[in-house]
Amino acid sequence: MQWKPLRSSRAQAPDDPSATCLVEGEASGCGAGRLTVGLLVPVRGAAGIWGPSARACAQLAAEEINRQGGIGGREICLRVFNAVDECRDIPDLLGALVREGELDAVVGMHTSAVRSRVRAATAGRIPFVYTPLYEGGERAPGVYAIGETPELQLLPALEAMVRQYRARRWVFVGNDCVWPRASHFQAAGALRALGGEMLADRYVPHGCGSYRKVLEEIETLRPDAVLLSLIGQDAVRFNREFGASGLQRRVRRLSCAIEENGLLAIGAGNTDGLFVASGYFAALANDVNMAFKERYHGRFGERAPVLNALAQSVYDGMYFLAALAAAPEQAPRCAPLAFRSVRGLSWRGNARVQQPVFLAEANGHFFQVVRQL
What we know:
The protein is about 35% helix and about 20% strand. By secondary structure, the protein is of the alpha/beta class. It holds the Pfam family Peripla_BP_6. Keywords: Signal.
């Protein structure tokens, strides 16, 4: 597919590239006879580190589906939007495109704050497949959430850290937004049930310049572990400062959102004692993932954007959309939607998603899977 730039929905200051809702590109030939899918992923801003791999995974899935006859006989055409928290125009921009019949579906990998805007824009008129981990509880008509929830991911990982690594005293640190706050609330209750203690629960804005005060509090409180619910570059900066402070020698860290791109950016010298829970790691050695990696690198080369859980969720999301379109309207609700999933996802509704979830420990620039949760 060839990409060409389009105009933004409104004029943007040149020094604020992350805030634009620019339609980053569209596949040549979008129009009548094709099924236009809006791909909403962070292109710039704090979460922009996820953009290249997410776009590549979406493109790979679209090309594979098109070779198989497309969706309902219609070839997929992708239009990419910069889905960052700073972008406030998404409801207006997407809403207009939906009303004008220029979008047939949306696949999104972005924060929950952006999800609420996309949900308002689509209003159940077109399918909206939401792919990343999130706090759970999405029930709006037309929104299909397929990512990990705390019940599947965070809470089992927290229990493993308490029981296996004797991490009973915790400090929670997250961005000041929906997913960290909701996840921390659930984690605090689970930790109490396990006999543990939350010493502090701290939130920082996106783009926080320094974590010195948070790190000083961690030094004072002397927890066994830190739960990190920081996103993108914020997670990178925190972990760099954490490593430089020397805390990694005695305090473990657990995250559900750090992936392979972030790990590379954090630096091998700052990853001791860093654990991540996720439904996907590029290091998984099962046959399905090995075949997926072969297709991915065969398409984009050995220097392709690094595979990771957030990007891979978009690949599964594209196949979920294709299966959703093909499902009979009277299909039994108790039966899972059958679709091609690298992760082995089972979806019977947003409240009934199942998939394997793994706990991995950082080993320099790589993740080593410790166990299945």
